[in-house]
């Protein structure tokens, strides 16, 4: 992917609103623009924008098999509100069966390597399948979510998944996200009111305490960079 393509996208959309950018991308890459949602606050903002843009952007989610019931609840509410299909990708059954057979259901607590193995099977492999054949991947990443995301750009090329990544909420603050959700009556995960900011799999997510980093509730038992491989800059 030539950097000139990214530069061109940044130039063409520099004066566009978020909704105008979505329409532009849908027209520029027909039926090849996808949005991955985990039904967190940022993703719900983007879902609302996509619904209002009335484009053919595909919304999909990864069901790891270890999600909170509250996540399924907001998934259902989102379907009812927007009347738009959300494609679901699951991990390969054989891979999950082998993992549990060899290491048990909670191997991710034992080491960073085991945790990344579980994330790879349950999230990265299904994501590769979901992104395959597409041109643009829309994400809900925000720069303030972690140090790893400070250097991201609005548009960038993800060499790991070989796709253009669009991060429309990159410069939004959490306060802006919460205000938008409230003002537009967007469905939210009930866990957000219980101190959960970043919500992933149930065994790997806890509420954060006042003053803690926004990602502290993810894989809280380890001191890694707190990423699962979905947004790694390096090709694996």
TrEMBL record:
Q: Which GO terms describe its molecular function?
A: 4 iron, 4 sulfur cluster binding; adenylyl-sulfate reductase (thioredoxin) activity; metal ion binding; phosphoadenylyl-sulfate reductase (thioredoxin) activity
> What InterPro entries does the record point to?
APS_reductase, PAPS/APS_Rdtase, PAPS_reduct_dom, Rossmann-like_a/b/a_fold
Record localization: Cytoplasm
Q: Which cofactor does it need?
A: [4Fe-4S] cluster
Which top-level enzyme class is recorded in the Swiss-Prot or TrEMBL entry? oxidoreductase
Q: In which pathway does it act?
A: Sulfur metabolism; hydrogen sulfide biosynthesis; sulfite from sulfate
Could you tell me which residue ranges the Phosphoadenosine phosphosulphate reductase domain spans? 33-207
GO terms classed as biological process: cysteine biosynthetic process; hydrogen sulfide biosynthetic process; sulfate assimilation, phosphoadenylyl sulfate reduction by phosphoadenylyl-sulfate reductase (thioredoxin)
Q: Which residues bind [4Fe-4S] cluster?
A: 118-119, 201, 204
Q: Which reaction does it catalyse?
A: [thioredoxin]-disulfide + sulfite + AMP + 2 H(+) = adenosine 5'-phosphosulfate + [thioredoxin]-dithiol
Q: Where along the chain is the active site annotated?
A: 228 (nucleophile)
Family, as annotated: Belongs to the PAPS reductase family. CysH subfamily.
Q: So what does this one do? A: Catalyzes the formation of sulfite from adenosine 5'-phosphosulfate (APS) using thioredoxin as an electron donor.
- Protein name listed in UniProt: Adenosine 5'-phosphosulfate reductase
What is the native source organism of this protein? Flavobacterium hydrocarbonoxydans
